[in-house]
Write a structure and sequence with these properties.
The chain is an all-alpha fold and about 160 residues long. The chain has 6 helices and no strands. Helix 3 packs antiparallel against helix 6. The chain is elongated, with a radius of gyration of 17 Å.
Length: about 160
């Protein structure tokens, strides 16, 4: 696969990861479609293995996500700005400490947003707890799975 197409696949994957944080955007589907596109062009054993693994992981995550109790975000004051901070935090955490860094990065992004908005540590931390109870778990599970797929894709591209 040539470099421009590889960069476009990477862009689709990043849009998918960002789409996990935006309601109504099929982020997981975009990540899977990006891996499918790459696999159909690459046609190697590693590419097919990654596609099968990513498909299985993302399907399991969808089932797990449906099993988690739904909560309402409006009741705890979550905003698009908070989702952006959480997403950037998760992405930075993922890059700094691969895979496991996404969790503290996600929480840290929410905390930073609330600290800037509310001003004090106590109020910000109370808000973080409320948001995490409302939606954090399901979004975090889906985000972590997508980041794992993107990380595996990057590793496969670099190794291949």
């Amino acid at each position: 696969m040539d470099l421009p197409q590889l960069l476009l696949v990477g862009l689709v994957l990043l849009l998918g990861v960002a789409g996990v944080l935006v309601p109504g955007v099929p982020g997981t589907l975009l990540v899977w479609a990006g891996v499918l596109w790459w696999t159909l062009r690459e046609r190697s054993a590693a590419a097919w293995s990654l596609l099968v693994s990513a498909t299985a992981l993302l399907l399991v995550v969808q089932v797990v996500k449906w099993q988690l109790p739904p909560r309402r975000l409006q009741g705890v004051g979550a905003t698009g700005r908070m989702a952006a901070y959480a997403g950037v935090g998760a992405l930075l955490g993922f890059v700094l400490v691969p895979v496991v860094g996404a969790v503290p990065g996600f929480v840290g992004g929410i905390y930073l947003c609330e600290r800037l908005r509310l001003g004090t540590h106590g109020e910000a931390w109370a808000s973080v707890r409320a948001v995490m109870r409302a939606v954090g778990t399901s979004v975090l599970v889906e985000l972590l799975a997508c980041l794992m797929v993107v990380g595996a894709w990057v590793g496969t591209v670099v190794a291949g």
